[in-house]
Amino acid sequence: MKRRACLLGLPVALSSCGGVLTRPYVRRRDWALAVPLPPPRPPRANGKVLLVRSVEAAPGLGDRGLKTFGPDGLMRTDFYNRWAVTPAEGVGASLRQYLATSGLFAAVLGPGSLARADLTLEAELMQLWAEPEAGRAVASLAIVLLATGSASPRVLLQATEAATTVLPAKADAAADVAAQLAALASVFSRTAAALARFA
């Protein structure tokens, strides 16, 4: 009898499991962290050589998931929408490309280069997220510029560059990404302006 009761209950159990298996599949999407570049200018003749070190990430920004910051002070990570690379890696590559395109320097080097640099830029990504309730996306970068052409490096500049952009009222992941990249472009523009007097 016990075996028969178990067998009779089996179709019900299987049908309930089938309900779980028929849930719609949500596909992950990777977004390119590619910041819009300024109009390209040729390298500055007799300009200085700039080394841009690997960008560090502030706590909470180390993984690839898109971030949303709420009014409750909590940061949420989107599991299904994420950057194609870690934010620090993407920002570092984009920043080097942005500064090279700006024409401020004779050359812009990356980590591992054996060329001698006159200046070294260190940066930490402090903010990169959407704030839907506030209707904005936020980005900020803490930078330190060092004179490294001599045996004793010295600090030339220490600053934090920040920017916000408008986020549509009914934003989706694509709008979040576009707004964050636009905010980063503004941060890069301000960073380039801050570095210009040392170039």
Detail the topology: elements first, then pairings.
Blueprint: H1 2-21, E1 29-31, E2 49-52, E3 56-57, E4 65-69, E5 75-83, H2 87-102, E6 107-109, E7 119-131, E8 136-147, E9 154-166, H3 173-196
Parallel strand pairs: 1-5, 2-6, 2-7, 3-7
Antiparallel strand pairs: 4-5, 7-8, 8-9
How would you describe this structure in keywords?
3-stranded mixed sheet, alpha/beta, disordered N terminus, 30% helix, elongated, Rossmann fold
Task: Please tell me the overall pLDDT.
Answer: 89
CATH architecture grouping: 3-Layer(aba) Sandwich
- The first-to-last residue Cα distance is 88 Å
Q: Biggest sheet, open or closed, and with what strands and sense?
A: 6 strands, mixed
Provide the CATH topology: Rossmann fold
- Tell me the helix content: 25-40%
- Can you tell me the CATH superfamily? ABC-type transport auxiliary lipoprotein component
In one word, what is the shape?
elongated
- Strand content bin: 25-35%
Tally of contiguous helical segments: 3
Identify low-pLDDT runs: 2-16
Quick one: how many beta strands? 9
